[in-house]
Fold these 2 entries.
Entry 1:
Amino acid sequence: MRALSRIAAVVAAVAITTTLTAAPASGVGTGGAWTNGEDVGAGARDDGADSRSRSGSGSVTCRSERLSDEEARVVVDMVAIGFVPPSEGEGAWYRRRCWTDDGTIVSADIVWRPIAVSASALASDAWDVSRIPLPGINLNPAEDRDQVVNVETWMWVDGWAPVSASASAGGVTVTVTASPTHVEWVMGDGAVVECAGPGRPYDESRPADGQVTDCSHTYRRSSATQPDQRYRIDATSYWRVTWTSSTGESGNLGVVGRTSSVRVRVAEIQAVNG
Amino acid sequence: MTTSRLVAAGLLAVVLLGCSGDDDGGESPTTTDPASESTTTTTAAADADVLDAYRGFWDAYLAAADPMDPAHPDLELFATGASLEAVRDAFADHFARGEVIRGSVDLAPKIEQLDDASATVRDCYLDQTHIFDSESGAQVDPPEDATFEVLATLVLEDGSWKVSSLDKVSDGCER
């Protein structure tokens, strides 16, 4: 009976299958509607091949193909009725088939495969530049007061701490960290000041004599000729963005700049000689 | 009406006649007894329901076979128990192999037994279905059609007849 060799093929397929089996066909075979204890009929007529013996002697080639969206929906329904184990994590459904040299299928399974996660791609996906804070501009004299020609203006920024974000997919976790490196101040009078750090805040509760700054600028001209009689100050904080992965990989996503602006009036103080 | 149904109807008539004979003290029974008519009508309707369900089973089978869908909702409308499990198992294997079943089945079902909750249908059907690779469309089984004699058991489940088993009696049969 031809259907009997179909059963043999199923037995062979089960024997060499190492991944999950889509159809636990034991006992009923691979055909269609009727059974006689071993066979299942209607559309069950086979090609007479004894795959079991062939699988032991010839070479077997296996190939996996990702299922189409329509087929994947069928698998989801098969999961619902318990014919396929549920998926785990992010991935896709594949049809894995193995053939002997003469083209006889000796095993066929539906398997869930995690998507191969690229840590660098995951890092790029995880990273959002908006997580980096804008620099909070601070001046002394304060921005709502006049700066003074030939008097040092102190500058510093708030928000000077590393920022991290993590993302996971397919069993891989990537942590992206942005670390501030320096601040570039465009002072509005043509001067550009680069400060290696956030700058040192001026503490009005302490004597001025005991305080120093590493980030300052001295205007030499008033802002009287500027629009609205003010200079525009742009402070750009720069952040180096790197990532590390649970796989041990690491990488660099480059340098990101974040800019805030204020407008200040710079006044000249006339000396009065008595 | 098929031969088997005539036989079944005849057996029913005999039973009714026997009961009638016990009651009426030897009068000749008639087949126009209202009770007999009613029962025959009811039986005919039940026969039709069973055969409709059997044919519905094959319709569902073919609907679920192309595209191959072991979880096709029609299957559980017309199959239950071992039969449903067997079809789903088989179709799951075809699905994994990337195969579909196309074609038709030419049915000739006859009711052999029928009671309130179960029925037996014998069929000698011409199987004109074949297995195809779903991607290439190439037929992967021999081209010949074949006849099979099968015995189907149907059960009444929530008011609907469903095939609970379908056993092959023989390869080949006279139609």
Entry 2:
Amino acid sequence: MNREGAETFLRLLAEAQLRDQLAPDPPPWAGGPGAGRLKVQVAAQALTAVRAVDRATVEDVLADFDLAVSLRRLHGSGPRPAPTGFRGPQPAMAMRGTGSPASAAAAPPVDEPDEGTADRYVPIGLTVPFHDTDVSGELYLLSFARTRAGARLFVLWGQPALSREHGLGLQQVERFPVGLFTVTDDRGSAYELDFTHADGSAWVSQADLVPAPPDGIAWLEVAAPPGPAVRVPLNPAGGPSGGEPVAGAPEISPASLSAGEQLLIMLAEDLLLAAAQYPLAMETEPRVVTPRVLQTMGTGLGAIIAGLEAVGALPPDSPIPARLAALCAGLRIDGHEIAAAPADDLPETWLSLLTYYQRRRPDTAQVRDGFAAVAAALPELDGIRLALVGLHNTEGKTALHVLARGVRREERFGPHRLNLDFPLSFWLRDSGGRWHAARPAAWYPSDPEHSIELALVPPLPRSTAWVEVLAGGRSGEVRARLPLRWGSPP
Amino acid sequence: MTGSPNGAWFGCLPRCEAYLPCGQSRHIVRWEAGELRLLSHPDPEAELVLAALGGERTRCLEVAQAWGRHTEDLSVLAIGPRGPADEIAVSWEDVDADARASQRGGQAGSLPPAGGPRRRARPMSPALARAVAQDQQAMQDRDRATRHRNDMLSLLALGYGFQVRLIGQVAEAHAGRPEEAMPTIRPALVAAITARLAPLAEQWLGIDPDQVVVTLHRGPGWGSSELTGRGAQRRLRVSLPAGWLAQVWAAGLALTGRHLVVGVGRAGWPDARVLALRAPGAEPVPLDVHATAAGPAGAGLDVRPTAADAPHWEP
């Protein structure tokens, strides 16, 4: 990567922003207060993400820019105020989490060689009721996963019912009574369950089986008082080890995306997610007004593209900038300064979510709660192995749980808070034909595999009989069609 | 009249003076022939020794030290003025206010001041040790950033004449760097030349400053220039050495008599011979030029060289 070119680009971009804001009549593209700084910052984050420039250089460039702007407005003249104000004693700026070059977004994840031969993912879809003197409820078993990191159950807790005393708050109670559950296998061995929660949803737990059960066991029984035990077959009829793909094996299509193209795709998908999640009720009338958050996310896209091209991270004939311009047009985002003319067509996934955004209604009923047993391993993509281990609807939102190997949780962020720890594009198409975008919402603290909760937008209706998974990386994309076995919390 | 037959970068720059508050008095600081001089402090080195032993550190000395710290600092190029229209007005009151604010910020730090009461040291866990090390690093970074800002404010408070001379000195310091050092230096130099050439090109040709593309010229000769494309694709492509900032731009020579000056043939004040372009792509022609300067506009003790006092050169 062209490190010198990257720094030159950033310094010239900073210079152009300073010049625009120094002009007696700043041009419209100069943006409001702080827009120039934001453009430099997001371009720097993009170049850091593709490992074209190191964080220290970016800090120097931004520090110089901030001081240059601040000094010129000491007495009310010069450029309009920047949001960062006069540079305080803090040497670091809002570049938190951009990561060092060695840990940038496009960096191939470091992992040990992995044949994946011992991995097994089994969908379950069973309910274990429990009841004791303090609390009662149900535990939904989503899936069983056995990898070289261990064996675990992915479970979803139902809403617990407390005894009268506890309901009145007279006594403390453990809402999720993990100690009630016992696990045994077909050979009579007993296991402890070590529950961990994601940092987001408290309703889903990963329950590690301690010790890990040996290969070849036929079933597990999970029991809680008053019983009876629920038997979980680990060799479902016709279900191959390693998951249960239907309609054949996953399709793999090779690709050769540049680091810049992958970054732009992820930015586009974040834009779509932000748009689709924006509460309709807060929109002003008429609806042509684009929410400010989307306008902000569009700021600097042109600078990002120019920077990626300048350092050779984005081919000049790449179709992605034109698609991004078309997406911005569809979302009515202006001020993005993308030089490419909008493309005539958009990827099917983007178009589906854009249509959802444009046609959504404030009175749309939210999806019903429920969980679906689904488990499947996907082929490795960009050094990342993903396995789907469960899906559930709670409070109108859909969460898809995946087990990921080859990623690291380092809270690295790219332009506009783009999460770089999960450098894949991930979509689900429901049996009705609509696409749902997925991005990480919560991570379980585990190593070397991460359990990640992906938020699906829009939520998945419970009428969905099957889903088609589409995971895209720089080296290719994977498609797999999977059945959903919905369970029904009362 | 002075000449500079040996080609010193400051040959076309006259001396420059400013008053600054120092203790209970106002003292003169002078820049002359590439050096900063404290006229009211006959033995600054002795004063520095005394200050190191706990004596008072005067503002004149602080400014001279700040100047010395930044004569090779590339951030001066990014922060300093782009031309007379970009005058950065910093007063000594601003400098004092910023220093006070810095001190207040320092007192609010998370670690106790050195020399304060300490408890008996206990072994730290590795995680705590890492956190402490990070905290100390962050504090050092903050201190460094604070001193850098305070330095910049003090140097800018000397006025436009000193600001451009410091820029010239920094550019000259890097003009002769070996090629292996250039990858880390060139981006700042390219940006610095672009920043100062672009507004001049707008005056010269009416071209949009964003359409000026600069590369750094190395080796013999003055560089090159050409105008390419039309409309939005129009570009003025100019290759200039880093020394252009020092010898030409800092002296206020860059646009003289509707010519873009690209080099100095015979340096001198107030008369010099320069190499100048009538148009992009043309060969530079020698041009004899003469400078007039009104001198510092404001009389009295508040005098300092502003952009209005910059020399005006005419053929």
